[in-house]
Design goal:
CATH class: Alpha Beta
Helix content: 25-40%
Largest sheet: 6 strands, mixed
CATH architecture: Roll
Number of domains: 1
Strand order of the largest sheet: 2-1-6-5-4-3
Number of strands: 6
Structural class: alpha+beta
Radius of gyration: 16 Å
Order of helices and strands: HHEEHEEEE
Strand content: over 45%
Number of helices: 3
Shape: globular
Length: about 140
């Protein structure tokens, strides 16, 4: 059984919810992040490393919390392709990650966003208790 349009929209929203949970990383928002992943999820990135399972993803989120003390991060995700059957799906999307310093600026000045990298997500999602969650997230950095 192929995925419905509703499934595809839910899967697209899954990545958006994940990105916003990282962009607004706080202790209070940790629940939002963990609602986007399975207990056995594996994250891979040439920039942030390899994380597995609940303990690994807790470490991953703690790193996001620490980074959010000094800067804002903004994930821009686009060009989704989603394929799957039943309760499993593959999601691919373009990714641009920006950073904005929280360092105080002189009066009338605003911090300038800096593009960290462009690339893509290559993810696998699984339906768990009726909700889509990522079981694998791989970041591919352009030019690497």
């Amino acid at each position: 059984m192929s995925l419905s349009w509703e499934d595809k929209l839910q899967l697209q929203y899954l990545l958006v919810k994940y990105a916003r949970a990282l962009d607004y990383a706080t202790e209070d928002n940790a629940k939002e992040f963990f609602e986007t992943v399975t207990d056995d999820a594996v994250f891979e990135s040439p920039l942030s490393g390899h994380y597995e399972g609940t303990a690994g993803l807790k470490t991953f989120y703690e790193r996001a919390l620490k980074a959010s003390e000094k800067s804002f991060v903004r994930h821009h995700i686009s060009n989704f392709t989603i394929h799957g059957d039943g309760d499993e799906a593959d999601i691919k999307a373009y990714l641009a990650e920006w950073i904005i310093s929280k360092k105080p600026q002189p009066a009338g000045k605003h911090p300038m966003p800096e593009l960290l990298f462009t690339g893509s997500y290559d993810c696998t999602a699984r339906r768990v208790d009726g909700k889509w969650r990522m079981s694998r997230r791989k970041v591919i950095v352009d030019g690497r």
